[in-house]
Structure formats: structure tokens, C-alpha cells
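HUMAN:
Just now I want nothing more than another pair of eyes on a protein record. I would be glad if you read both lines and explained how they fit together. I have put the entry right below:
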Amino acid sequence: MASQELISRLEERIENVSDFPVPGIQFKDISPIFLDPKLYEDVIADLVSFSKGKVDAVCGIESRGYLFGIAIAVALEVPFILIRKAGKLPPPVIAEKYDLEYGSAIIETREGQIKPGQRVLVHDDLLATGGTTEAAAKLVEKQDATVAQFSFLIGLKGLNGEEKLKKFNAEVYHILEY
């Protein structure tokens, strides 16, 4: 869906940081995108074109999912719902526990902000193993809404993140793949 020109511009901006946050990891630093307002605008336009007319709300996953998710929701003229780490939102909340490589974590959203029957886009900056995104989708389903789409700036091959999301029967989109 993204033009080759947009992909090239993003690849020129995104910085690869070796051995961060731990040895062996190649970190994709997206922060240089925000130094180029036109590039950011074009990324939003591309992500919006994927979802236009297909969703009633956008959920963004803390914290980098907010960087694009809010702008997507505004452009689509639909609500934006925060998905945060446990303990960051006032009650009442709906929570979902999920496994990490070592241990587990919990994410939450405010109860009642996702409405029954809504078609929801779950957005984050990057899809890796899919654990956090899967937990976010379960939060949507716990509120009798449907995950219609997942979108990401970047999808990482070989980590099986998309495989975890197949059970939701939702469209999955990422602009870049590494």
C-alpha cells in the first residue's frame, strides 16, 4: 500500500542502533521521523488510507503507539483510546496479563471507552513477537468490540508476531518490514 517513495524516505530517516537495549538487538529508532513534518504527515496519510471507513475507534499501545495512533484517529474522526501499562489509568479499568520472554506484564484500558459492537484499529509503532498487541486485542474483545485491523509502522520478520494475530481475523498492515 505504501509507495516506494515513502518507504525509501522512511528508510533514510530511521536509524539502526546496534546492541540496544541489550547486546544482539538492532534497535530501529523512529524518532528522526518527527524531525520531518512532511514525512510524518505522509506516514499518517498512508496509515489512514488503510483504515478509512473500516473502523469506529483507534486503540494505541503505550507509548510509541500514541505517536501515530492519535493522529490516525483525528484524521479518521473517530475516538482514540489509550492502552497503558498497569497502574497508569484511573479506575475502573479492564486488564489483560500477557507473557514476556522472562516474566509477564499487564496492560489496561479504561472501562467503557471501547463500546460494544465497535470495529477497532489497534495501532503500535512496531510488531515483533506480537504479545503486547495480542493482549491489546483481548482487551478490545473483553468489551464486546471487534478488532477489525492492526497497523504498525514496522513489522519484524521471523518473530511470528503476525501469526499470533491471525486468530482475530483482522487485517494487518505495516509500512516497513525488516
Remarks:
- Strands lie at 15-18, 26-29, 57-61, 80-85, 93-99, 104-110, 119-127, 146-155, 171-177.
- The chain has five helices and nine strands.
- The helical segments are 4-13, 37-51, 64-76, 131-142, 161-165.
- Residues 37-51 form the longest helix (15 residues).
